[in-house]
Write a structure and sequence with these properties.
The complex is a heterodimer of chains A (about 35) and B (about 300). Chain A is mainly α and about 35 residues long. Chain A is rod-shaped. Chain A has one helix and no strands. Chain A has one helix spanning about 5-35. Helix content of chain B is about 75%, strand content about 0%. Chain B contains twelve helices and no strands. Chain B has helices at about 5-20, 35-40, 45-55, 60-90, 100-120, 125-140, 155-160, 165-185, 190-215, 215-245, 250-275, 280-295. In chain B, helix 9 runs parallel beside helix 11 (about 250-275). The radius of gyration of chain B is 25 Å and the shape is elongated. Chain B starts with a helix and ends with a helix. Classes of the chains: A mainly alpha (about 35), B mainly alpha (about 300). The interface of A and B includes residues 16, 18 and 37 of A.
């Protein structure tokens, strides 16, 4: 794996982690709001 | 990376993907990622759904159920996009797939928006924000759809005397026939025959990969793609339909014999194409065609 590919893979991993966090956050907040409403 | 290595990797991917199992867009079946996060995360909303049922809040229940249906529709689209993306990656020549992942992300966002608007006290702006964040999250996790067609360079196309569309069309058509063969093979009760057909399909995919690698092979392999695959597909389908009646008959033995020949000849096709020996290919195809007719299974 070249340096460029390594950086690309890392960037993709960070993006993916942020996406996972956002989705879990949205569904978590929705669940709590739906339970308390 | 040298072109030859790319081609070999492509062949390996095709063959190995077949060996590991059947699936919808076949070449992608092994590499297809499932959208597990989108399958599991929305299940959190099952808690308020059940609570709504317990407390008798019909409005919330309907809102959450409708939202979940929309979210899972989006999940289906994202998974379909992942499958088509894997198929696109496995091919050397391919048209860019439709933006299913993007559409799926938008639909998931819509589902989240509906859940938020109807089942919580959040107003329109906050619900829109939730929907947008969900869509962005999907795009970040599953990426964007490929947007570029993988085509032949003008020089290669001119040298081979074919257009990219012709190659893609021929390979896609052949893929369809292979899927039909696989579908028929799944109905066979004989494990030996199923295994043999698996190997035949894998070899045929290797031929397709070779054509994508060197499109000038398309002219020489056209008869293989049309006559040969059609013949094999029809024979397998007919046998599968009548296998109960044909068991232990001469036709069953002939069918087995034909499959043996098909496997043997298919195995030689890639080598023949690589060696650029047109005559070999024609002769082998002619031999098999004659045998199919003689054995009475075609």
């Amino acid at each position: 794996m070249t340096e460029h590919e390594g950086v690309e893979a890392m960037s993709r991993g960070v993006q993916s982690a942020i996406g996972v966090a956002l989705l879990l956050l949205v569904f978590g907040i929705l669940t709590i709001r739906a339970l308390v409403s | 990376m040298p072109e030859s290595q790319i081609g070999e990797r492509s062949v390996a991917r095709r063959v190995s993907s077949r060996d590991r199992g059947a699936g919808m867009p076949v070449r992608s079946s092994a590499a297809t990622r499932r959208a597990w996060l989108l399958r599991i995360a929305p299940l959190m909303l099952a808690a308020p759904l059940v609570w709504g049922l317990v407390s008798g809040d019909v409005g919330d229940v309907i809102a959450l159920a409708a939202g979940l249906v929309v979210i899972y529709l989006g999940t289906y689209l994202v998974e379909s996009g992942l499958a088509h993306e894997a198929e696109y990656q496995a091919r050397d020549l391919a048209k860019a797939p439709r933006p299913r992942k993007l559409l799926g992300a938008i639909v998931v966002g819509l589902g989240v928006f509906l859940c938020s608007l109807w089942a919580t006290s959040a107003g329109m702006p906050l619900s829109l924000l939730f929907g947008a964040v969900a869509s962005v999250g999907c795009i970040l996790v599953y990426g964007m759809d490929p947007s570029r067609d993988k085509g032949l360079s003008p020089e290669v196309a001119r040298k081979a005397g074919v257009r990219t569309e012709q190659v893609i069309e021929a390979v896609t058509e052949a893929e369809g026939k292979l899927r039909e063969i696989e579908q028929s093979a799944r109905g066979l009760h004989n494990r030996e025959l199923t295994g043999r057909l698996d190997r035949i399909v894998a070899q045929a995919r290797a031929v397709l990969a070779q054509i994508e690698k060197d499109p000038s092979d398309l002219r020489r392999a056209r008869r293989f793609l049309v006559t040969y695959l059609d013949g094999t597909r029809d024979v397998v389908r007919k046998y599968t339909e009548q296998q109960q009646d044909l068991a232990d008959t001469e036709l069953a033995a002939n069918f087995r014999h034909v499959l043996e020949t098909v496997e043997q000849v298919f195995a030689e096709q890639v080598e023949v194409l690589k060696r650029n020996e047109t005559m070999d290919l024609e002769v082998q195809i002619e031999v098999l065609r004659t045998q199919l007719e003689r054995e009475g299974v075609a």
